[in-house]
Amino acid sequence: MVGPGPAAPLENANPLIYRRSGERPVTAREEDDELPDAIDDREIFDLIRSIDDPEHPLTLEELNVVEQVRVKVNDAESTVSVEFTPTIPHCSMATLIGLSIKVKLLRSLPDRFKLDVHITPGTHASEHAVNKQLADKERVAAALENSHLLEVVNQCLSARS
Amino acid sequence: GVKDGRWTVLQLVEALGFSLENTDARTRGRGIQLLSQVLLQCYFLLQEKEVLHLVLFYESRLQDHHLVIPSVLQGLRALSMCEVLSPGLAVSVLKAIFQEVHVQSLLQLDRHTVYSIITNFMSTREEELKGLGADFTFGFIQVMDGEKDPRNLLVAFQIVRDLITKNYALGPFVEELFEVTSCYFPVDFTPPPNDPHGIQREDLILSLRAVLASTPQFAEFLLPLLIEKLDSELQSAKLDSLQTLTACCAIYGQKELQEFLPSLWSSLRREVFQTASEKIETECLAALHALSACLSRSVLSSDAEDLLDSFLGSILQDCRHHLCEPDMKLVWPSAKLLQAAAGASLRTYHCISRSVLPLLLEQYTKHPQSSQRRTILEMLLGFLKLQEKWGHVEEDESTLLSLQAPVCSVVFSALTDSSVQLQLVGIKALTVLGSLQGFLSSSDLELVVDHLIRLTLHEEDSQSSEAAMAAAGSLAPIYPKVFSGHMVPRLAEELQSEREEESSQDRCSLKQRCLQALAAVSTHTSIVRETVPVLLQHLQKVQKGSEARNIQDMVSVCQSLHHVALQCQQDAEGCWYFHQTVVPCLLAMAVQAAMQESTHLLLGKTLLEEEVLTAMIPVISAATTHLSPELAAQSVSHVVSLFLDGEVSFLPQNNFPCSFQPFGDGECLDAQRRLVALLMAFVCSLPRNVAIPQQEWLLRELLALSCSCNCPFTATTAAKCFAGLVNKHPAGQQLDEILQLAVNRMEPSLVDGPRRMQALTLLLWVTKALVLRYHPLSSCLTDKLLGLLGDTELGPAVADGFSLLMAESPDVLHKGCHADVRIMFRQRFFTDNVPKLVQGFHGAGPDVKANYLKGLSHVLNHLPKPVLVTELPTLLPLLLEALSCSDRVVQLSTLSCLQPLLLEAPQIMSLHVDTLVTKFLSLTSSPTMAVRIAALRCAHALTCLPTPVLLPYKARVIRALAKPLDDKKRLVRKEAVAARGEWFLLGSPGR
C-alpha cells in the first residue's frame, strides 16, 4: 500500500474528466430548526466527492471514481455502502483511494454506522485483494500508523485551497 | 565648531595631527574616525582646495592597517557627497578603492559604505565614470562578487541596473556581470523573525529581476538558466523563472529568442499540461502571451525568417488535436494555451483562429452530447471574446466573418438545447456576438430577440431565464430599435393577456418574468420611454383588481421600476424622464387611495399596505438621488406643498373628493398620514445643496407626528424622515432650536406614558443622524440610550437599537442618498461608548446585564475587522463572558465576532484557548441551530491557532465533535464534518 514517489510518470496522463455536481442547494426545510433531516445518499456522496485523487490534481468525482448512484445509506439501520471505480483496471492507487474514502467516512460519520467500502465489481484486476484489505479493521488501523501513508491520505483529504 | 564656521578643516587636521600620524594603528584609527565624523556632518561647507587635499590624504590611507579602513571609507563617503569635488578625483578615488581594498573581507556596514560611495559618484559624476570605460564595470564586479547581505544586495542590484540602463561600457565583461548577479537566481531568502530592516523576499526578487531583464545582452545566458529552473521541482523557482521570462519579453526581440523557442515552448506546455497549481498555470499562460507578443512585434530584417509562424505552428500542432476530445483532461489546458497565444496580437489571433475556429465548429456537430457541446462552445466563446478585444476588423481579414453562418447556427442550436448548462454558455456567446459590430445581420437579430423572449418567459430553469434577461439588457443599448420594436411590445402583450387555460400559478410566474424582463431590457433611454408607461399602467390595473395576490404583484412592479430607476441614474435625460413620469404618478395613486378609503372601505386599499409603500420607497429614492440641483428644486416645491398645503395640481389625476392634509388632525386621516413614507423617500434622497422650502415647518410637523401617532409604521417613518432631514440640515441656530424642540418632546415621553416606544424610536433615529455627522449633541443622546439599557421595559429594545445605530440603513441616512456620513463614525462611536458599555455591564443588575452585552456585540459586529483586532485584548474577557450568556442573540453575535478574530489574531486568542475550547464545545449542543452552526465554525477556526497550543485538546475536541456529526440538522452536520476533519489533520503528516 505505498504510492509512487513524486517523480514517477503518471500512469494515465490524459484521463476522462467528469463535471463536478454543484453545491447541494439549501432547502427551506433544512433551515427549519425543528424538522429533522435524515442522512441520505447525497450527503454521503458530498463527503467523498471532493477527495483528491492521489495522482492528479482532480477530485474523485471529476475522475468518476465515485458516483452518487454507487453510494447507499440506510440511516435507520446505520449502514453505509460505497462502491468506487478505479480509472484503469491495473490502477496501483486503488487501495490508497479506498483507504482515503474509508478514513474520510470514519472521521465524518457518527460511530453507529457500519461502513462498507469496496471496488465496483469487475472494474479492477485485484478487486478481491483490495476489498479484503479495506474490510479488515486491523489492517486499516495499521496502515494509518504508517506515517508516509497517513501523509498521502491526509493530503487527499485536505480541503483544496 | 567646524559646522558654524569657527574652525576650518585645516585647523582641525592640524589639531589632530598627532593622532593622525601616530604609529599605533588604534590611535590613528580614532583620529581618522573623528575627522570622518566631522566631514560627514559638514561636507557641504568644504572648499574645492580642502577637498582635494582630503581626498589625497584619504586615498593614501587606504593602504593603511585594516583597523583604520572603515573610518577611511566613511571619510571618502563624506567627500563623495561634496559638490565641489574637482574633475578627475572621483575616478581616482574609485581606482584606489578597486585597487587597494578587498571589499568582500570587510564587515557588512563597511561594504555598504563602498556601495554608497559608488552610488554617489554614479549619480553626480556619470560622465567622468564613463571615461573609465569597461574598467569601472570590471572594478565593480570585483567589489560585489560574493556579496551575501540582503541589504547590500539591494543597493548592488540597483548599481548594476544603472550600469546597464545608463549605458556604461560593459566591454568584454557582459558575461561576468551576468554571472555575478544571476548567481542569486532564484532568490532564496527568508527574512529572520523580528527583522528590523524589513527586507522581504519579494524586494530582492523584484530588484534582481529588474537587473536580469534590463538588457537583451544577457539573453544568451539568461534564457538557458530560466529553462533550467523552470524544469526544476521547486514551485517558487518555476514561478520566478516564468515571471522573469515575461519581463524579458518586453525588451527582447526575435533574435534573442530564436535559439530557445523550442525548449521554452516544450517547458511551458509541460507545465500547463501537468501542474496542479493555478498560479503556475496563470504565469505560464502569461509567459506564452508575452513570447507571442514579442515575436509579433519584432521588426524583421529582409532576409530573416518570421519565427512567429513556426512558433504558432508548433503550438497548434501540440494542442489542436486535444480540442477534439472534449471529455479529456488536456482539453482545457490546450484551449488556454491557444487562447493565450491568440490574445497576443492581431496577427496571432488570425493565425490561430483560422485553424481553430473551423475545427471547433466541426467538433460541435460531431459531438452530440450536451456536456461535450458545452465544453466546445465554452472554448469557442473564449476565442470570440478575443475577437472583441480587437474591435471592428477589416472585413476581408476576419476569419470570423467568413464563418458567420455556422457560428450563428451553433449558438442558436445551443439556445434550444435541453441542457441548461449549454443554454447558459449559448447565451453568453450570444452576448459576445452581439457586441461585435456588424456581425449579426438584421434577420439574425430578430431571431436573437425571439430566442431571448422565449428563454426569458418560457424556459423553466430560472438560471437561463435570468441570463437571457441580462443578455437582453447588455444588447439593448447596442440595438435599441430592435429591442423597443420587438421585445417590449411582446412583453407588454404578455403582461396584459388574460388567458384562461393556464393555471393561476403559471400565469403569476409568467407575469413576474414579464415584469423582470421589462426592467432588465430598460438599458437605453428610448427603451425606458416604452417600458415605464407599460409598468405604470400595469400597476394601475392591479390596483383596480381585487385578487388576493395584489400586494405581491404591486411589490413586483415596484421592484421592476426600481431596477429601471437604477439603470437610468447615470443618464441625465433618462433620469429626469423617469422622475417626472413615475414620481407624480405614484403619488397620485397613493393620494387617491388614501382619499378613497374614507368612502369605500375596501377598494384600492392595498396600495397603502406597509409592504407596498415600503417597495415604493426605493423607486422614488432612486429616481431622486441623481437629479441635477435645478430639476430637483423644481420637483421639491411641488412635493412639499402637496404635503403641507394639500396642493394637488401637479398630479396627473387631481380630481379628488376631499382635501389632502396628512399633518392635519382627525381620526379619518390615518391613511393619508401613511404617505409620509413617500415624502421621506423623496425628501431624504435630495442632494444636500437643494434647499427644501418651508423646512422648519415640515420638521415640526414630522416631529409632532412621530411622537403622537399610534400607528408604528407612520410614527417610525416620520422619525426617519425627521432624522434624514436633520442629518443634512446646515449647522447653526435653526438646527439647534429644532433639536432642542425634539429633546423637549422626547424626554417626558421616555420617562413614562403610553408612547414610550415611539419616543425611543425617535431618539434612536435622531441619535443616528447626529452620530453620523459628528454633531456635538450626539454624545448626550447616546448617553441617554446607554442609561436606558438598564430600563427593564425598554432595555432590550435599546440594545437592539445599537444595531440600528451601527448598521447601514437601506432607505435613509446612507451615502447613496447624500447623507452626511463621516467615514470613521463607527470607530469613533466604539472608542467613545464601549468603555461606558463595559462599565454599565459591571454595574448592572442581573436582569439587565444581557442588554449591555447585546448592545456591545452589535457595536463590535459592525466594526471593521482590523480595528476590532487591535482593540481585542481589552474586550476579550467580556466576550468570553458573553459566551456564557443565555440569550441566543448575544451568543450568536459573540460567536460571529470571535470567528474572524480566531483567523486574524491567533496569537492573542491562543492565550484563552482553554476557555474557548470549553465554551465552543458546550454551545455545539445549543437548542438553536444557528448557534450550533456558529459554534462549530468557531471550533473549526480554532485550528488556525498555533498547532502546539492545540495539540493537548485534540483528543477531547475530536471526541466532542462526534456528537454533532449525528445532529438532526444537515447544515449542522456539515459544519461538524468540516471542523472535525480539520482537527484530525492537526499535527498529522500531510496537513
Cα-atom radius of gyration of chain B: 38 Å
Count of strand segments of chain B = 0
Helix proportion of chain B: over 70%
Radius of gyration of chain A: 16 Å
**CATH homolog superfamily of chain A:** Fe-S cluster assembly (FSCA)
| Strand residue content of chain A | 5-15%
Subcellular location (chain B): Cytoplasm, Cytoskeleton, Spindle; Nucleus
Pfam family, one (chain B): MMS19_N
InterPro entries (chain B): ARM-like, ARM-type_fold, MMS19, MMS19_C, MMS19_N
Subunit structure (chain B): Component of the CIA complex.
In a few lines, what is going on in this structure?
The complex is a heterodimer of chains A (161) and B (991). Chain A is α+β, with helices and mostly antiparallel strands and 161 residues long. In chain A, 35% of the residues lie in helices and 10% in strands.
Q: Could you outline the blueprint of secondary structure elements for this entry?
A:
The complex is a heterodimer of chains A (161) and B (991).
Chain A: H1 28-31, H2 41-49, E1 71-74, E2 79-84, H3 94-108, E3 114-119, H4 127-135, H5 137-145, H6 147-157
Parallel strand pairs in A: 2-3
Antiparallel strand pairs in A: 1-2
Chain B: H1 9-20, H2 25-42, H3 48-61, H4 69-80, H5 89-100, H6 108-124, H7 126-131, H8 134-144, H9 150-165, H10 174-182, H11 201-212, H12 219-230, H13 235-249, H14 254-257, H15 261-274, H16 278-297, H17 307-319, H18 331-342, H19 346-366, H20 370-390, H21 399-402, H22 404-415, H23 420-435, H24 442-458, H25 462-475, H26 480-496, H27 504-520, H28 525-544, H29 550-568, H30 572-599, H31 610-624, H32 629-645, H33 670-673, H34 676-683, H35 695-708, H36 712-728, H37 733-751, H38 756-772, H39 777-788, H40 795-806, H41 825-843, H42 849-861, H43 865-883, H44 888-904, H45 906-910, H46 913-923, H47 929-941, H48 947-950, H49 954-961, H50 970-985
